[in-house]
Amino acid sequence: MIDIEPAARRMRNLAAGVPDDELAAPTPCAEMRVGDLLDHVLTLAWAFRLAAEKETTAADGPPPVPKAENLPSDWRTRLDHRLGALVEAWSDPTAWEGETAVGGVAAPGEEVGMIALDELVLHGWDLARATGQEYVCPQDDAEACYAFVSAVPPDDPAAREGLFGPVVPVPQDAPLFDRVLGLSGRDPKWTPPASG
Fold first, then answer.
1. CB within 10 Å: which end of the chain, N or C, has fewer?
2. What are the mean pLDDT values of the chain's consecutive 10-residue runs (196 residues total)?
3. Domains assigned to the chain
4. Which of 186, 165, 164 is nearest to 174 (CA)?
5. Is the torsion defined by CA of 186, 190, 192, 193 positive or negative?
6. Gyration radius of the chain over CA positions
7. What is the DSSP string of 60-122?
């Protein structure tokens, strides 16, 4: 079992710090704006809770394309509740046992729980960078995410599809979390483009 509560708490705090006028701002994920990213986090918090509770199957199919237009007016409150439910679901040891499914893909519960942590950590960093907030990844979360991202072949587009973009080269002596970001297809030095 992995404790996903700290990563969920960081995401909750970051989301609370996003002003409405930044929903159209770019993120390190080239295909997503801040509002799209928040819609994605809302969806993944719900989907991974159901996966922990073994309420989904591979037949449920992939998630919808994230869009800012899908955000409800009370998205902050709803995200707070969904993240709380997500943490509660994955605090049950049975969530990490047996098989489950998320996003239309069947996998062992242990692997899906690891993906949930990875999603919260990486998208937490995305959101922080996009909105000028600080993001500090604790060493234990960085180590767990590194074990996961480094197991995905860097030169196999099919294996990376839907998970990560092309690897961004990062020096081997860089901080561990920077190497996690690079392996996940993110540039640790990314900053929002200058406006005007």
1. C
2. 96 95 94 96 96 88 90 96 98 96 92 96 97 96 94 74 81 95 94 75
3. 5-136 (1.20.120.450)
4. 186
5. negative
6. 16
7. G-PPPPP-GGG--TTHHHHHHHHHHHHHHHHTSGGGGSSEEEETTEEEEHHHHHHHHHHHHHH
